[in-house]
Amino acid sequence: MMQFPFQQELKLEGQRVMLCGVHRAHSEAFFRLVDGNRDDLRLSFPVLCGEVISVSRARNWIAERRRMQSQGQHLAFVITSRDTGVLLGYLAAVHIEYRVPKCELAYFMDAAYRRQGLMQEALNLLLELLFHSLHFNKVLCRVAPENEASLRMLECIGFEREGLIRNDFRSGHGILGDCVYMGKLPPGQGV
User: Bridge partners of 163?
Assistant: First the structure.
């Protein structure tokens, strides 16, 4: 079975955003990002919200992601502005399955930077790495049906709705909810 242990520091650059492998140096800014968006994130990222409750806990959370990344289980990035270096959001390839290979994406953007095409640009950078450099055969996103903005964005970059999965996710409020599965294949594959 092929695996991709990501030992080196990864950096992907777009026109307006840069993806930088999550690092201990991001701890304070990452905590501020989570804390400033906690009310929005609690529904979709309950584990993150429960664990990143201080700068020191953010440092621990990042250390765990780096450990998982060194074992090829996870690929985590902070999204920063190319112009200012400000931390804008988070993007990760999670639940990596090497037999296919495929993964799921998890992402969020600071409320102040949403609806500007920045996440779309960041996703395209990561998809380029996953499909062209790492030769993944599928990328999946699970999205709450009411998150219409995220569903539209994914459709704009070539994801297709694969179905509604019932009782697939428990929110930070303890509510069991459905997810729309959005899938994307490498360019040239599929219909």
Answer: 181
Gap between the Cα atoms of 187 and 158, Å rounded: 9
Strand order in the sheet with 11-13: 11-13, 17-21, 75-81, 87-97, 102-109, 138-143, 176-184, 160-170
CATH of domain 11-136: 3.40.630.30
Give 20-40 pLDDT, tens digit per residue.
999 999 999 999 999 999 999
Which amino acid appears at position 181 of this protein?
Y
The token pair that represents 133 in the structure block: 């450099």
Q: DSSP states of 21-71 as a string?
A: E--GGGHHHHHHHHHHTHHHHHHH-HHHHHH-SSHHHHHHHHHHHHHHHHT
Model confidence pTM above 0.90:
yes
Crossing angle for the helix pair 148-156 and 118-128, to the nearest 10 degrees: 50
- Give the start-to-end residue ranges of the domains of the chain: 11-136
Which helix (H) or strand (E) segment holds residue 94: the answer is strand 87-97
